[in-house]
Specification:
This protein is α/β, with parallel strands linked by helices. The protein contains 12 helices and 13 strands. Helix 1 (11-18) packs across helix 2, helix 8 (168-180) packs parallel to helix 9 and helix 10 crosses helix 11 (254-266).
């Protein structure tokens, strides 16, 4: 099969055929200065007849706009990222923007960070959680490049907006539930990635719940989960092997809860009779686990939509949005905590 070659028709060819100037064709293509409807219709006909394909790169150079949004994140694995990406893509595509994703295996440091996603290939950037260090954020701030952070707040000296979810109060509420409704006292908390802001706030909520019920904080019950199934499974297996007594596990997210359930099942521990298990996020698999997972529902898709919406607004009006946007969460009750009837608690 012979591949069709890109159109060799240029903007000058269109201008000559339509009997207008190159500048008029450029204005029509870039929509920066209106042309008359008669001229617009003539250009549409000529372009269709000549099979003219506008060059996005040329338009970008002419307008200094790429109509592309960048997204920097450290991982796209697991069930968490699908709704986040859906939300971002829905907002960007509705505004006529493309989405360019750069996935880094380790958090980027200052050197070269802006060379991945910056003014040369995007009009603004979304930065997820711990994918970039503070020095890299400073690069974007210092050059006044439109930037919105997702699931992390900016350092105090940087005036960058952030969109995230309410973590601390929700975490306190789910641990309160384990204590007050199910009389659990030895509750394991599985941390997320080191330094990850969501994990820090969730641990703070865990500690507040213990304090409110006069339960001493036991560091032997706080261990790594890394928002990872295998890490969480290994941590629970280690606690069991060490003979640490516990009657509940608050997983840092639903991904790690899957590993917890697997480890407990293999050890012959009944859920929730022997050990209650709860998570955070309400990922799509949560109601289909055995038993269905009690968790905190985080509006992940809405986070993506709102972050993209804010970035698009900043591109049009620099400095128009600052500060942190906290989206509300709610407690979703299922059988893994010991409740028999499902419920949603705002």
């Amino acid at each position: 099969m012979t591949k069709s070659k890109p159109s060799s028709v240029t903007i000058r060819d269109v201008a000559r055929e339509a009997g207008v100037s190159v500048a008029t064709v450029s204005r029509y293509l870039n929509h920066n200065t209106p042309v008359s409807e008669k001229v617009a219709e003539r250009l549409r006909q000529v372009m269709q007849a000549m099979k003219f394909v506008p060059q996005a790169t040329a338009r970008a150079l002419a307008t200094n706009k790429t109509h592309t949004i960048g997204l920097l994140l450290a991982d796209i694995g697991g069930d968490f990222f699908a709704p986040l990406l859906n939300g971002i893509e829905a907002a960007t595509s509705a505004a006529g923007y493309d989405l360019l994703i750069s996935c880094v295996r380790q958090p980027l440091h200052r050197t070269g960070s802006i060379s991945l996603l910056g003014p040369h290939n995007t009009d603004g950037v979304l930065i997820f959680a711990d994918s970039l260090d503070d020095g890299g954020l400073s690069d974007y701030s210092e050059c006044n490049f439109p930037t919105v952070l997702i699931h992390r707040s900016a350092p105090e000296e940087l005036n960058l907006p952030c969109v995230t979810v309410e973590n601390k109060a929700a975490s306190k509420k789910i641990v309160d539930h384990l204590i007050e409704v199910h009389d659990r006292k030895r509750i394991v908390f599985l941390r997320g990635s080191k330094g990850q802001e969501d994990s820090i706030w969730r641990e703070s909520g865990y500690q507040l719940a213990l304090e409110a019920h006069h339960i001493p904080y036991d560091p032997s019950l706080v261990t790594d989960g890394e928002f990872d199934r295998q890490v969480a499974k290994s941590s629970i297996q280690r606690l069991l092997q060490q003979g640490v007594e516990f009657d509940a596990v608050f997983s840092g997210d639903d991904e790690s809860a899957v590993g917890v359930i697997n480890a407990l099942n293999e050890a012959g521990r009944r859920i929730p009779e022997d050990v209650a298990v709860v998570g955070f996020d309400d990922q799509r698999m949560a109601p289909y686990l055995t038993p269905p997972l009690t968790t905190v529902r985080a509006p992940t898709e809405e986070v993506g939509q709102e972050a993209a919406r804010q970035l698009l607004q900043i591109i049009q009006a620099p400095g128009s949005i600052t500060g942190t946007t906290l989206l509300p969460t709610e407690l979703v009750i299922r059988r893994s905590c010991g409740c028999k009837a499902p419920a949603i608690i705002s």
